[in-house]
Amino acid sequence: MTHVESQSVYGPVWAIDDVTDTYHVTPLGNNQYAVDRMVNGTFEAFAQPNSGQPTASLLDPSVKGQIHGTISYVVTSVNGPVGNLPSQEPTATGSHAQLMQLFPDASNISGGSDWVFAYHAAHGSMTQRYDTDPSTWGNITG
């Protein structure tokens, strides 16, 4: 496996995910909508995400497993959601871009900071949660 160190706005990239996003939209009134994003799928970790180092430590061999997560938002939109997202999104399409596809006239998207993701592999598990310090604990390598 070839690895090219990569950074995102959220820190080192340590895995490749193949996920299905499901958005649950609830009208709140006053042109506001509660939007919950549920993420389910698989991951392949090529680096240890919670090593405490500025860059993730490479894993050899890589670790594969299941990923499950949730993120909540509030979207302000006069016209509301317009329909379904494409069945396949381009690589690295984030939640904000998907929300703009669902709500093209969105004047405000708030939230997104209350998230929880769980990673489960054969030899261990790891949780990432917004309200803990550090936000990541556990070990996917066991």
Q: pLDDT below 50 for ≥5 consecutive residues: which ranges? A: 1-5
- From the spread of the alpha carbons, the general shape counts as elongated
Percent of residues in β-strands: over 45%
Spatial order of strands in the largest sheet = 3-4-5-6-7-8
Note down, in words, how this protein is organized:
This protein has one domain (19-139). It is built from one helix and eight strands. The protein has one helix at residues 95-102, and strands at 7-8, 11-12, 15-29, 32-48, 57-76, 108-121, 124-129, 136-139. Strand 4 (32-48) and strand 5 form a beta hairpin. The relative contact order is 0.20.
How would you describe this structure in keywords?
142 residues, mainly beta, two-stranded antiparallel sheet, 8 strands, disordered N terminus
Condensed summary:
The protein is mainly beta and 142 residues long.
Fold topology:
Blueprint: E1 7-8, E2 11-12, E3 15-29, E4 32-48, E5 57-76, H1 95-102, E6 108-121, E7 124-129, E8 136-139
Antiparallel strand pairs: 1-2, 3-4, 4-5, 5-6, 6-7, 7-8
